Amino acid sequence: MSDTAMAEALPQAAGLATPPDARNIRWPWQRHPSPEAVAEKAALSAEIERLHAQLEQAHWEREAAEDRCRDLESAARSAAAEHARLTAETRREVAAANSASRQAQAQIGELARGLQELMQVDKTFERWHAAMDGVLTHNGGMHRKNDDFTLIVRQMTIVTLNASIEAARAGAEGRGFAVVAEEMRSLAARAETLSTDYRKSLYENDLITTATFQDLQAGGKMIMGALVGLDLAQRNAMETLAPQQGAQP
User: Fold this and answer.
1) Among positive and negative, which fits the CA dihedral 218, 221, 224, 230?
2) What's the pTM?
3) How high is the pLDDT of residue 236?
4) Burial 19-38 (b: 16+ CB within 10 A, else e)
């Protein structure tokens, strides 16, 4: 219904005659707005547009924030999984290192016991040294006895020579005595040869014994030096492993 028709219908509905200027009536909603109202409406429209733009921006920012949150959650899960993997791997490596350390300590302990047993070879070398000294002393005694034997042989040779001279002076009566003296002189010559060979063998024995004794001394020093070096290395290894063993969980 138009404004004019409404203006005509209202008086009729009220039982009034339609005024002749009903068409010229201006209702409140048909009035022109004032400049202030127009300006206020424009300001409200602008404010609405600004608020709408801010709402849109907030909506996009919220979605971006949600995306970032999802990315951070995914990164956090990945980091947690990587941390768990590294932790498990570190524990395995630590366990392997601890096992290797224990095995190394056990082997070093066995080495230490072996070294302690080998250190007893020093006493063996001392016994050999004493035995070699005894052999050299015994050889010296044999040299002296051989020298005494040589003197006896020489005296026997002189005696047989004198006996031969006396038998020759006695003539036919001393012929048998001369035979005995000659035999004694032959035996003395053989004994002197045997004494000379025996002396030569004793000197050779002295040389062999001395060389053997020197080789044993040199070998013993080398062995003891190697054992002392191994013992020092074993002690250093134990001192190195001791802090690691103490730091094990």
Assistant:
1) negative
2) 0.43
3) 74
4) eeeeeeeeeeeeeeeeeeee
